[in-house]
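Quick illustration, no need to memorize.
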Amino acid sequence: MPTALVPVSHKLTVTERAERARTALAVTRGGFEDAMYIALAQREMWPEELRAKPPEEGKRTAGMIVMQAVELGVSALQAFSYITVIKGKPFLMARMVDALINSRVQGGYIQIIERSALKCTGVAVRPGRPKTTITITIEDAKRAKWTERNPNYQTNPAAMLAARVKTTLGWMVFADVLAGMDAYDEQSGDVMVIAEVEVVPSGQIREEAAPEEPQEGEFRDVPDDAPEEAPAPQEPPRAATVDDESFLAEVGAVLDAIKGGWGEVRVAMDLPGKTPKELKAALLEWRAEQSEGSDPVALVRDAVLARRAASE
């Protein structure tokens, strides 16, 4: 059948630009002292065990968490939900693996497809890569001596195996997203290290070939007789809600705190709009695109600070 060629293009979203700006801020400011300063500004977000530490130890631990958050692309406001420190070493909270993957990889996810006290099977999907399926059994756990280290393998083996499957798939398929961090399950107290991926027998790992994805500037084949896609219906402008007004008020308060203005937001976020009303409408549209669990206010603040730092 004859085919036509349709170009495929990719463009950075405002969210991705903001993420890059935030990373640029961290690189520009850099250093442990700056990380501790940022952490102290977020002290109300610290978990109870961190607040209970002696002041100097708490400050240094919090600074370490903020520095590791930069590697994960997580804002300082969210850092203490994603990372903990055990005996001086930062660990990724196992419960946040899904959230991190979902927020950083469009179309990427990990799913448990079979779970029991004897074995657990999960699948990891990342667009453009092979779909990976693994199974971890209670026998694997015994052989690796996980059952000796943690009694929860005796009382709740299904949950323990499921946590292992998720983190192992995360390391195998989303290693860049997880920044190579070992993981900690706060509910069970299980410490999971990336080297333990080797525990899974090769016969329990299966990869399915991924369909070829056209790269930027390449073309994909589309049959000549394929029906034309109907144009997407145009949605009317969304009226501002109470939640929108609260968001704008929070952004305004942050700008006051850093002695900034809405003009800086427009430039730093590369938003359209010549009047304050148009700019705020564009900012609300950008906010609506953010993934659940993200912190749009922090992204706006960090983008503004990154632009300042870059221009100094």
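The longest strand covers residues 109-115.
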